[in-house]
Amino acid sequence: MSASVSRVGVVGLGTMGAGIAEVLARGGHSVVGVEVNDDALQRGRDHLERSTGRAVRRGRLSEEDKAAILGRMELGTSFAGLAECDLVIEAVPERLDLKRRVFEELDKVCRPDAVLATNTSSLSVTEIAAATGRPEQIVGVHFFNPAPVMKLVEVIHTVLTRPEALTAVQELVGGLGKVAVTVGDRAGFIANRLLFGYLNQAAGMYEAGYATREDIDAAMTSTGLPMGPLTLMDLIGLDVSLEVCEAIYRETRDRRHAPAPILRRLVTAGLLGRKTGRGFYTYDGAEQAEERETEGVPSVGVAGSGPLAVAVIQAAVRAGADVRFVAGDDDKARAVRDAVGEEVTGGTDLSLLADRDLIVEAVAEDTAVKRSLLAAVDDVAREGAVLATTGATVPVIELAMATDRPQDVVGLHLPDPEGGLAELVSTVLTDPGVAERAAAYLTRLGKRPVRSADRAGFIVDALRVPYLNDAVRMLESGYADADAIDAAMTYGCGYPIGPIADLDRIGLDRAVEVLRALYTEYREPAFAPAPLLDRLRTAGATFR
Ligand code: NAD
Asked: How far is CA 310 from the centre of its chain?
């Protein structure tokens, strides 16, 4: 337990306040919880009882511990009980007028040396502090939901906060076994500022008809995220999502946070996500996962000899497909055979691909090379074959037009060649039946196809790389360092890797390439590579 803070008040015992009270009592603090009326107090008690009861059933807590935790709490409806607290954490609904009123009241009843903290997600801590006569004693402590589980706590200081007040809160948070990241008072702090730009973009992508909600979510979970962006917004609540975007937009005027129109429409219609039973999705249990028509395993031809070609051949072999490959010369054919096994038929003559159901072009990322290869494949491929190009930096239609059958050409992008996800791209000319067939083939080959429009970055790169770029801009602005940014996203949002580490992993060259393609297509300032990213790339350096 931290030395300076032993008795802690919590105002509001809703989703967050009850969770925070539990964390504090588990950490050995005596807790004074205050609610607005008896009904709300009872809901708070029920919440605490359920949460600790669940921990006992799962064997994470003994009955005695549970009793001790609840025994450390005094719950009531009067602020007077807060008079002897060293620290009070406010967790009432996210409305500035309400929070200011609560702080005025706290200022009256609490000891003059007590630190007053707000759990606001998006309001200005400075504006809340201004409602009191002790702005130097005000900090933000931003816990994440569910508070007992999530490791991150953002600790926010304003320009007026006294260092001692900040230290007291940092020590308290550290003593609770949480990871504290300390930042200044900017809308969205670190985690929400980076998360909501991406969520808002995903909403816009869905609204534009670029891909289905299921495919957008499946594409992003394939990168290791705990859930897709539309499911996450439904869980957070679309009203809360809208409000957080608005708050960040008000401060930054950055279009990336200007709420996607669909978000406002859904909120206006009262469709707030999971809590009202409908948001981007409907939660009546009636939804069925879409069934894709599947046929037999297709025969597969692969043109290329690099790592991507090898990964495609291996996936097809694993799925039991009859596979052939064609490499540029004998040495390359030898190298492929060494990688995939002698039993796979291959060579250097494109006519090997003549009878294939699915032909995947996976040669070097060079438009001229890809176009001439596709033209040559067009000459040998049987009628009805699906031609898939893996080109990712020019529109797929530019490659498809190298053939005389653009209606049979689809784009195929494997964000992680070893992984299960396949982005399947239809151009403006792709025959819908061909796209269906391609999706069925990919399913039989053990991939989860997601359908994307022929737009720069398809789904995964278009959503992931701008978020990484936002993180570099934040780093560049001096608001937070690389460790704080990575910790915020891994501990606060459950990302498998922080954005700065992710950039070093995927390569700065590739990130800049994707951003340039996105910028060329949309002319959106947020997609222009952050100068720091571009300079490090030019220097051949990495972030760490
Ligand atoms: P909530 O609606 O679940 O809980 C708020 C509680 O405050 C309610 O129980 C309400 O009765 C009580 N309350 C209202 N007025 C009060 C008053 N004058 N005095 C005492 N209690 C009062 O809301 P929540 O989701 O717990 O959010 C609380 C705060 O935490 C907000 O600022 C929110 O932005 C922030 N936050 C929420 C999340 C989340 O995921 N829900 C995550 C991080 C931060």
From this structure: 30
Residue 362, burial from CB neighbour count under 10 angstroms (0-12, 13-18, 19+): buried
CA 392 to mean position of chain CA atoms: 22
- Which two tokens mark 374? 């596709």
Assign 3-class secondary structure to 363-432.
Answer: CCCCHHHHHHHHHHHHHHCCCCCEEEECCCCCCHHHHHCCCCCHHHEEEEECCCCCCCEEEEEECCCCCH
Q: Which of 39, 78, 92 to mutate to test the pocket of ligand 1 (most atoms within 8 A of CB)?
A: 92
- In the residue annotation, 154 being an active-site residue is answered as yes
Answer yes or no: 293 catalytic. Answer: no
Q: Is 96 helix (H, G, I), strand (E, B) or coil?
A: helix
Distances in Å between the alpha carbon of 123 and those of 9, 120, 245, 530? 21, 6, 11, 27
Phi, psi of 448 (to 5 degrees): -100, 105
- Tokens 């004693």 belong to 137
Between the CA of 366 and the centroid of ligand 1 the distance, in Å, is 54
Nearest CA to ligand 1 atom 14: 92
158 in Cβ contact with 138 (< 8 Å): yes
Q: How far is CA 395 from CA 426, 427, 469, 520, 521, in A?
A: 10, 8, 22, 11, 10
Cis peptide before 531 (omega within 30 of 0): no
Backbone dihedral region for residue 446 (phi beyond 0: left; psi -120 to 50: alpha; all else: beta) = left
465 torsion bin: left (phi>0), alpha (psi -120 to 50), beta (else): alpha
Two structure tokens written together for 339? 């990688």
For residue 304, what are the CA distances in angstroms to 60, 309, 312, 374, 543? 53, 5, 10, 12, 32
pLDDT per residue over 187-235, tens digit each? 999 999 999 999 999 999 999 999 999 999 999 999 999 999 999 999 9
Distance 430 CA to ligand 1 centre (A): 50
Q: Cβ distance 145 to 153 under 8 Å?
A: no
Chain segment 3-60, per-residue pLDDT in tens: 578 999 999 999 999 999 999 999 999 999 999 999 999 999 999 999 999 999 999 9
Helix, strand, or coil here: 63?
A: helix
Alpha helices in 58-212 (DSSP H): 63-71, 96-109, 125-129, 163-175, 191-207
**Residue 121 annotated among the catalytic residues of the structure:** yes
- Annotated active-site residue in 121, 305, 426, 452: 121
